[in-house]
Amino acid sequence: MKLMFVSDIHGSIYYAKRAIDIFEKEKADQLIILGDVLYHGPRNPLPKDYSPSEVAELLNAYKGKIIAIRGNCDSEVDQMVLNFPMMADYNYILYGNKRLFLTHGHIYNENNMDRLSGGDVLIHGHTHIPVAKEVADKYVVNPGSITLPKENNPNSYGILENNLLEIKDIEGSVLKSIRL
Fold first, then answer.
1. Could you tell me the residue ranges of all domains in the chain?
2. 156-161 and 164-169 beta bridge pairing
3. Taking the chain, what is the end-to-end CA distance rounded to the nearest angstrom?
4. pTM of the model as a whole
5. Which partner from 58, 117, 123, 171 sits 20 to 30 angstroms from 135, CA to CA?
6. Domain Calcineurin-like phosphoesterase, which positions (predicted)?
């Protein structure tokens, strides 16, 4: 199974379309959205082509292929226009012999991994900074932000296939990788 991870779309139809184009090009089986789907938040600038209603419409067409987590900018009103669940603060999925802990990162992150066991993989967004590393006996991954990257990082996403997790820029170049 091939999984694609995006985080922090923040209502940009331009980058939501880029994410869907990449999802199709990568031939991923599931698109995992790690929060901050529709709203840009008060601390962020308006993203390119800000149109939360268009983002909702686009993503709803893929509802059967999306696993989503709530971010700190997501709310109940957002759930009213999305046809896939996205209000959970975290979710677990099994990938081979690994347990993936999916969250946005504003509650559970590298400094709060109390829900993880040895060998688990913490995958989160929120910081808009790509990360792929091992911490003690766990893995920490952040695909960065598809829309609003920080610290001079490029717009990015993650791909997990055959236990190799790669973080790529939107042109497909590998920025970071880790074998799980």
1. 3-179
2. antiparallel
3. 14
4. 0.97
5. 171
6. 1-161
Q: What is the pLDDT of residues 36-56, one digit of tens each?
A: 999 988 888 899 999 999 999
Pick the CATH number of 3-179 from 3.30.450.40, 2.60.40.420, 3.30.559.10, 3.60.21.10: 3.60.21.10
- Write the pLDDT tens digit of every residue in 96-144: 999 999 999 999 999 999 889 999 999 999 999 999 999 989 999 999 9
